[in-house]
Amino acid sequence: MHKIGILALQGAVGRHADALTSLGAVAVEVRAPDDMDGIDALVLPGGESTTMSRLLGTSGLHGPVAERLAAGMPALGTCAGMILLASEVLDGRADQRCFGAIDVAVRRNAFGRQVDSFEADLNVEGLEGPDFPAVFIRAPVVERVGEGVEVLATVDERPVLCRQGGIIVTAFHPELSGDLRLHRRFLSEI
Ligand code: GLN
């Protein structure tokens, strides 16, 4: 059984825990470095990436998370979590830090104020069945994709689901639609 940490400094933690638990994993909330002990992978949820970046520093978690990611720990980053895992953040705060775990440049709040939130059915590469119902909330978008990064889904030709090795990032909130296929895929590849 996999033990999956969910970064729980701020943001949309609960529904990720529900999704992982209902797929048979053990979900652990990560708030302090000790909470990382024994986890096989980490979920970085949606929320506010600038706040999470600051809390990663004050909690002492930034270093331990960066070390585990550099050592190849798989991770799923959704929305703000995608921003944290990126190698470059556009329209971020000057002091905002990111882990560089996936070679993408991400622009915050890229879909514009008038459409802060929307839903879209995504055709996801490699996913069996119907399109994936994706909920976007003040979502970022991927503006540059490095070599070795696979784009698995787009909206208006803009990448919103990418992967590089064990790192999967989504501009949307896959935990909100009740469709567990992306969490299942993440778990199956650990
Ligand atoms: N706009 C938020 C940020 O920049 C992300 C929104 C979200 O995670 N739903 O961190």
Q: Give the overall shape.
A: globular
Structural class, from helix and strand content?
alpha/beta
Question: What are the low-pLDDT stretches, counting only 5+ consecutive residues below 50?
Answer: none
Provide a count of the helices.
5
List the bound ligands.
glutamine
Task: Give the spatial strand order of the biggest sheet.
Answer: 2-1-3-4-12-11-10
Mind describing the biggest β-sheet? Answer: 7 strands, mixed
Helix content: 10-25%
- The number of E-state strands comes to 12
> What is the H-and-E element order?
EHEEHHEHEEEEEEEEH
Mean pLDDT: 96
Amount of beta strand: 25-35%
Report, as a whole number of angstroms, the end-to-end distance.
11 Å
Work out the radius of gyration. Answer: 15 Å
Compact description:
The protein is α/β, with parallel strands linked by helices and 190 residues long. The protein has helices at 14-22, 49-58, 62-70, 80-85, 181-188; strands spanning 3-7, 26-30, 41-44, 75-78, 86-90, 102-107, 117-122, 132-137, 141-145, 150-155, 158-164, 167-170. A hairpin with a 2-residue loop joins strand 11 (158-164) and strand 12.
